[in-house]
Amino acid sequence: MADRPQPPPSDLALLVRAAEMLALPQRVCRIRNCRRRGYCAWLFHDTQEPCCLDHLDAEQRRLFDDFVKIVRTVRDFGNSRGKLAFASPWRETRALQDAAVEAARPLLRGAALAEYRAFATARAKNRLPVRYEGDEPPLPR
């Protein structure tokens, strides 16, 4: 099996926005400023990550990294010209996709933001119903 290409490292704005979307500054961060303000105010300079990520265990960090990948995919491929709607028929997957769409919007500026708004509007208009409970099953290898 060929090695799959790894996505580029996440930028700081993406990590911060994903952490804020999951309410990590309020729920896990031990830094008072982050809890009070509701956003990541402290960062590790060597890793360029929010401090609240240091307080996650291995499974929580894996889930956070999976969410960051979804946000990055929505940010990079969420446009009205594309065929990706990010509207899974599975309830849990759809909830993650909805959160990723909301988290990706503030990461864009200018023409990319206008294109993204058109994508979000089309996605809202063509909203397919949720048909299945739970997470989308993994693809067979």
Question: What do these coordinates show?
Answer:
The protein has 141 residues and is mainly alpha-helical. The protein contains 6 helices and 2 strands. The protein has a two-stranded antiparallel ribbon with strand order 1-2. A hairpin with a 4-residue loop joins strand 1 (43-44) and strand 2 (49-50). Helix 1 crosses helix 4, helix 1 (12-21) crosses helix 5 (91-104) and helix 4 crosses helix 5 (91-104). The protein is globular and about 40 Å long. The mean pLDDT is 85.
Annotation keywords:
two-stranded antiparallel sheet, mainly alpha, globular, 141 residues
Mean pLDDT: 85
Shape summary: globular
Helix tally equals: 6
Q: Major β-sheet, in short?
A: 2 strands, antiparallel
Side-by-side strand order of the widest sheet: 1-2
**What Rg do the Cα atoms give?**
16 Å
Percent strand: under 5%
Q: Please report the distance between the alpha carbons of the first and last residues.
A: 10 Å
| Oligomeric state of this protein | single chain
N-to-C order of helices and strands: HHHEEHHH
Indicate the topology.
Elements: H1 12-21, H2 24-27, H3 32-37, E1 43-44, E2 49-50, H4 58-77, H5 91-104, H6 110-125
Antiparallel strand pairs: 1-2
